[in-house]
Amino acid sequence: MRLLLNDVLPGGASPGELLDEAALEGLYAYPDAAGRPWVRANMVATLDGAAAGNDGRTGTINTPADLVVYTLLRDLADVVLVGAGTARAEGYGRPGPRTGNRAALAVAEGRAAHPELAVVSRTAAVPPLLAAAPEDGAADGGRGGVLMVTCAAAGEEALDRARDALGADRVLVVGGDSVDLPAAVGALAGRGLPRVLCEGGPSLLADVAAAGLLDELCLTVVPLLAGGVERRVAVGAVADRPLVPRVLIESGGTLLQRWTRPGA
Bacterial bifunctional deaminase-reductase C-terminal domain spans which residues (predicted)? Predict the structure, then answer.
């Protein structure tokens, strides 16, 4: 991986240098947010802006470099925030342990050995793969837990089904007719999960940005012109949120970008 821009670590790696694992982790480290939650989004797109391959899945446009950063961002996060539709389409399972020594470092900091997964659903519908009991007979199957982020409009029957599947304390009802995302992020932080990684999909990312919650966007652009009719990385709610480029890395034609809100 070759660094092209570094505006986050003065005195760190310089443009043109090749990055080792430690340097890469430093470039993506969460900032000291003075006790407030920090919401980072991670998305991938083709050269023509498609947020998925023509089969509707992001997996078909991922590259090895994108996978490295995807894994790193999950390792650094406390909780992964994802829309229920994306979780179903992409076959989301419970998050595994952080890789390498990052699990031990997280535990030493008083954090879990694996991130949690928070699924946003107005109807409180738990994706089947996440509703299934953890494997191997352990209490958590060696994986992170699942939280449902929903609203009162889901109705008591749907809420009860979600509580039966995940546990009563793992269903967060925030909002009346729709999910109150600022309240959701506050509730996650209140559970000791302030480092939020939003993995979309495009509708959820637009909603997060429109609500003024987006602190940072990590965007991978892969060297592929897809054509087709796939959506952009953010669609739906009008956001109009300016972002500032902080990091740019190139690897095998893949561009890895880190953008933050002005003044961050």
Answer: 37-238
Cα 170 to Cα 203: distance, rounded to the nearest angstrom? 23
Bridge partners (DSSP) of residue 43 are: 219
Q: Which residue has the tokens 């109705």?
A: 155
How far apart CA 175 and CA 153 sit, in angstroms, is 8
Per the listing, tokens 């009008």 go with 238
Helix residue ranges, H only, the chain: 21-28, 64-76, 84-89, 102-108, 128-131, 156-166, 181-190, 202-210
Report the distance separating Cα 70 and Cα 92, nearest Å.
Answer: 14
pTM score > 0.90 for this model? yes
Rounded Cα distance between 180 and 256, Å, is 31
Pull the structure tokens for residue 5: 């821009």
Side chain identity at residue 51, one-letter code: A
Instruction: Quote the tokens at residue 81.
Output: 């925030």
Instruction: Decide if 149 contacts 118 (C-beta within 8 A).
Output: yes
178 beta partners: none
pLDDT, tens digit, for every residue of 3-16? 999 998 877 889 99
